[in-house]
Design brief:
- This protein is mainly α and about 350 residues long.
- About 55% of the residues lie in helices and about 0% in strands.
- It contains 14 helices and four strands.
- The strands form two sheets. Strands 1-2 form a two-stranded parallel ribbon.
- Helix 4 crosses helix 9, helix 4 runs antiparallel to helix 13 and helix 11 packs across helix 12.
Length: about 350
């Protein structure tokens, strides 16, 4: 790098430090030079300032004794959280297909094309050679194939199978939303219910956030403008099974009603245990959650535990620690196969039809 570029970068980093200081952020634990090195190699100003939303401000709008080291710690925890969840959500999506496939295989009258038509009645995934892909005609799709986009990795498969696809073909081009919708339609057609479906909304939110590298450790409140607290009875019950207690430990029962992240995180981990039956995958997931717990605990006592300026964040991190630990211990308690009873072991069951 020539001298002019180094000077420009130095000025830019000085500006970022000044911007942070103007908001009341201090550099006592992490000095300015270390902060500059971190900003130049690991993140950028707008990103790291988002984590400051977890902390209270003075009346003048400046943060109350918030050190850059704490923001750096949150950025690292957030990254570790997303990396752990990336493994779990990818496997949960695959395991949902396996679960769907097992349900299909149990149907003696199975017809893959009939099921494809059931879940895609408008032929959104049917390929018409005359029309082609939607992104090859200036975004003007024909009556069929409006969900199909050209990709060199799927083109041969689409041209071979998608003029008259079976359900297994469709899975290869479904996004998560399409997969969930098709699974729900098939369950409904068989008059079946599945506990995993109660957590699909949480699954989609976390999966989309992880896929787009969106920050998760933000002060996102679940209560609406009228202060209504959403119900959490089912996930509370699943957590009782996870902790093997009559009630989840504090502060989970109260925080899960208020924190979007704690609600989605705990719900998704419960769903993962329901749909994932591979012990090697479960053990890796347990190790990831155990490592995440230990990383959060590294600075928890110093930065968060006694910090009255971030009570919501403190409770959120405490819940993630406890839930992650319980998740890991639940799997470690298994020997050669997943638990075979309880809400966290549930296969699709019939429901009464009026």
């Amino acid at each position: 790098m020539d001298s002019s570029k180094r000077t420009c970068l130095a000025k830019s980093l000085d500006f970022q430090i000044a911007n942070l200081q103007n908001d009341g952020i201090v550099f006592d634990i992490c000095n300015e030079e270390s902060a500059k090195a971190y900003l130049s190699a690991n993140t950028y100003l707008f990103r790291i300032k988002r984590y400051a939303s977890n902390f209270n401000k003075h009346d003048d709008g400046k943060y109350k004794n918030l050190d850059f080291a704490v923001l750096k710690d949150l950025a690292v925890i957030d990254y570790e959280l997303r990396m752990a969840l990336e493994y779990l959500v990818a496997n949960a999506e695959h395991d949902l297909k396996v679960r769907f496939n097992n349900l299909l295989m149990s149907n003696s009258e199975l017809d893959g094309r009939r099921v494809a038509k059931l879940v895609d009645p408008d032929d959104r995934f049917v390929f018409d050679e005359k029309i082609g892909y939607r992104n090859q005609h200036d975004g003007r799709p024909g009556k069929t194939g409006i969900k199909l986009k050209y990709s060199p990795y799927s083109d041969a498969m689409v041209r071979k199978y998608f003029p008259d696809p079976e359900i297994w073909n469709l899975w290869e081009c479904f996004n998560l939303g399409d997969l969930i919708d098709s699974y729900m339609k098939y369950l409904e057609s068989l008059h079946l219910r599945d506990n995993a479906t109660k957590f699909f909304g949480n699954f989609r939110r976390l999966r989309n956030a992880v896929s787009h590298s969106a920050p998760l450790l933000l002060d996102v409140d679940r209560t609406n403008k009228q202060g209504h607290v959403p119900q959490t009875e089912f996930v509370d019950g699943c957590l009782c099974d996870l902790f093997q207690m009559d009630n989840p430990p504090a502060p989970i029962p109260s925080t899960i009603k208020k924190s979007q992240l704690v609600y989605d995180y705990s719900s998704f981990l419960c769903m993962f245990l329901i749909v994932c039956n591979s012990m090697p995958i479960r053990r890796i997931a347990a190790k990831l959650m155990s490592d995440l717990e230990q990383r959060i605990c590294k600075n928890y006592e110093q930065y968060y535990q006694g910090n009255s300026e971030c009570i919501h964040l403190r409770n959120t991190l405490a819940c993630i620690i406890r839930i992650s630990r319980a998740f890991s211990e639940y799997i470690k308690a298994e020997s050669d196969q997943p638990h075979q009873s309880g809400r966290l072991h549930f296969i699709p069951q019939p429901f009464s039809v009026k």
